[in-house]
Amino acid sequence: MKAMESKPTFVYRDGMLSDTKYVEWLSDVKVRLHQSQIKASIRVNTSMLEFYWSIGRDLVALRAEERWGAGVVKQFALDMRQAFPDMTGFSDTTVKYMKRWYLFYYERVIKGQQLVDQLEMPEVFGKIPWGQHIHIISTCQSLDEALFYINKVAEEGWSRSILENKIASNFFQAQGAAVTNFERTLPTYQSQLAKEILKDPYHFDFLSMKAEYNERDLEQALVANITQFLLELGKGFSFVGRQMELQMPGGQTFFPDLVFYHIPQHRYVIIELKAVKYIPEFAGKLNFYVTAADELLRGEGDNPSVGLIICKSTDKTVVEWSLKDINKPLGVATYQLQEVVDRTVAELELRVKQEKV
Fold this sequence. Notes:
elongated
């Protein structure tokens, strides 16, 4: 019978783990911290994150908990606080997050490629505050999702609260989720780009709508809250007009609900709002509006206009079939909002009476 391996014993001197390898590593970390402090005057956040990343990488590479026991993180945090009493950032929890942060990406990049190597911190990570890094790895499931939010925070300067709200509303999953016919109606290099500026669903939680509302009510509420609506649409959208007049050469006029211009992609986006479930007739009307926008609004250098129907609900098969023979690039998505139900005093009194009975 094979003898059981004995667990290593650890010697502590003056409250410090005295294992030679541990002492060498702790000494090396202290030197790196001094170097990091020198850099910090130039690039505070990046320097701190590079240092945190290196600690996480060390804890993984050294197999610290296997080598020195489960209490090594707590001991390391204590040793660093004693060595640098004026510094913050060395609580047990923070050090655990350093390892968890590195490990999140290591497991999805290095192990995913079956490589035995260390992972360097991507440059863009230095643009993201530490607290937001922690929220991302604590809530995101995949590498693609995490990097999506990393890039959004870096590009658009999201605050912690905006990031939390976007993740809670499944913003990543919604991107590009609208049903479209772009692959058939746009050149290949434009199709994916155009699809990326649409999503499904759109969250109109910033509105307070009565239980009985129509499309015009929804349109008015969105225009009244245009700043929040633009944020929900995403970066790059500029509001052109509501019920904008499109006059035909013969004098007949048409009025699409909302017209936007997407500045990075140089294209008009025509939006029709529907406070009901999608029906195929909606696509035909929007198809005409997009044609009119191309003829009347589109200028030299502009890309083809696209149309978007935002409705209360959809049947995916109905949407896909209805877009098959449409010759203009259209997309269909849904919206979500909180409906506020109006109750009169009489209704409330009746409810009270019923509850008493």
